[in-house]
Amino acid sequence: MNKVILKIDGMSCSGCSNGLEKYLNKQEGIESASVNLVLAQAMITYNDNLTIKDLERFVMEAGFQSLGVFDEKELNTKDYSKISLTIFAILAIAIMYISMGHMINLPIIPFLDMSKYPLNYSLTLLIIVIPFLIYGRDIFKSGIKNIIHRSPNMDTLVTIGVFTSLIYSLFSMLMILKGNYSYVENLYFESCAIIIFFIKLGRFIDKKSKAKTTEAIKDLVQITPSKALLKIGDNEKEVTIDEIKKGDILICKPGMKVAVDGVIVKGDSHLDESFITGESLPSKKKVNDEVVAGSINLDGYILYKAEKIGKDSTISEIVKLVVEATNTKSPIQKMADKVSGYFVPTIVFIAVATFLGYLIFAFPLSEALTSFVTVLVVACPCALGLATPLAVVVSMGITAKEGILIKSSEILENAHKIDMVVFDKTGTLTYGNLKISKIYNFSKKSDEELIRIVTSIEQNSTHPIAKAFINYANDKKISLFNASDFEDITGIGLKALINKKEVHVGNNKLFKKLKIENSYQKEEEELSSLANSIVYVIENKKVIGLIGIKDIVRDNAKSVINKLNKEGISTVMLTGDNQKTANIVAKEIGIQKVMADMLPKDKTNAINELIKEGHSVMMVGDGVNDAPSLAVANVGVSIGSGTDIATNSANVILINDNLDKILSLIDISKRTLIKIKQNLFWAFFYNICMIPIAIGLLKPFNISMNPMLASLAMTFSSLTVVFNSLRLKRKN
Fold first, then answer.
1. For the whole model, what pTM was predicted?
2. pLDDT for 84-96, tens place per residue?
3. Pick the CATH number of 393-423+554-669 from 3.40.50.620, 3.40.50.1000, 3.20.20.450, 3.20.20.360
């Protein structure tokens, strides 16, 4: 299956996005399609039988236009032209003055006096309304096409309303031409013009306002510099980012930004990576350390080799991840979309019923027509359709800037429901910076040779324990053996051949696997009592060493656990370490429940059991070793480097390894759901209040509305949702 995000032009309301989404999902070869109204994008999963051109053709058939494949560079704020809006604002004032100026005692233009020169008056209004009809052609085009595709939207309601008023006004004008001047009172050209103008004005303001919801994402795009210093021999040359190739050596001086992802080959410095990690403290970088594009070099002169360029860079991966997440739909959004799908047909029914009701009760045709158009225009599915996606886009931007990457909007909605957080130990609750604390050597080999054997095998592993041996060997400058026939024994250890001898390194489960007796339990217990992880070294089924590896608990682990407990959220530790070691760490930081000696499949089974018991479980671990557990949890959170984004299997990635961000995630989830519910309330409340007024039910209380006021009110309903969503940026 292939996946692509297309930029879509021509969507103006939730009816548009829902209609396009339904049409795309009906097409053969499309596995799934999700349309985002806020970002004006369609995320499509399709098979190999289709091409991008086929997808763009489907979009065009649905009444919209594809602007090509999404490129994160184009997230920069567009400059929406004000010229046409200004011109039509002047025309709107003119048509209002001519048609309604006399109502508020403004001077009447003599030759346009409706009572003395009805023909001049009606022709002038017609001439002025024609440019408005051209100005609103995109609305009419969308409205008509969505009727054809049986997906009526807001544009459909406006189109019906405007053309109803226009046709009746043209009929009245024809009667005036025949000499029946009483029809001058039945002209609604100004309503057509003002409805179109207010809708265009509303969309202009709406676009500008919605652009603010994506500011956090745009900030990420603008982080990387446009130019870099390329090292050529002993010289340097300023080049654009597009000119850089993988393997190029680049220069970064103090105060400059790193241009592309790479690896330092010379020098050291402190780099500010707060834009990607949310961590304010600078990070010390030296030779062989990775650097991320956009990092600010604070004090050193470094040379680095370009590794990831353009769309492969960490920033591009983050932006892509965030954009894809905003294109997914949470359960509450799917519910709102379903309601929106029934909304427009319901409004058309109410409008027709209103029109017929007025005629049945012998009201004038003009009054029936006015109420019909007012109901069509005032009803606004836009606010209902924007309620969820706007809040999600704002929240996704906030979490991305804090170093929290969420892969699905459903996770954002569900994170606040968590009542249990399950932690892996090594590399999660601890730093994973393991060190060799004690060596029991049961052979005639030197300690250095024993470490040399173990490291020669461990260098093939990515486990934190392996790093302890590799770092030790590097510090002591110990050369390594050639290890062959390497095998990773899941949950137990490693095996390889060294100097034609079969060597196993791992935990005490090796004894059961190799069917040999463990005579070193006393030494193991001693190491375990000091919170060491155990590494046995067994050569040809004979124990030659027992090594204790000790980890350091993260500084904020205890405070995070305490805060979770105070929130009523249970905490559990799942670890492959022995029970004693796990209990020591758990007691130190306040973990309530410990499950030790767990293989990866045991962890997965344990989480499944907790979910069956009725818990909503968040699993926090590393994105590789704990992948199965992260996948089955209600919310899987990976503690991992930002460079692992593309391959990480978790729902959520904490780029800076900061456990405090778990609390931030839950808090943002709570605030997002509150905003979504508020938005939905205001969207429904608006229609509940406005539609009865539009029908005319409150006329006995001197409360009424005309189509022009209806179009203005419709705009305000959408803006209410926009500004309420933007309040998410405020923490209090």
1. 0.63
2. 888 998 998 998 8
3. 3.40.50.1000
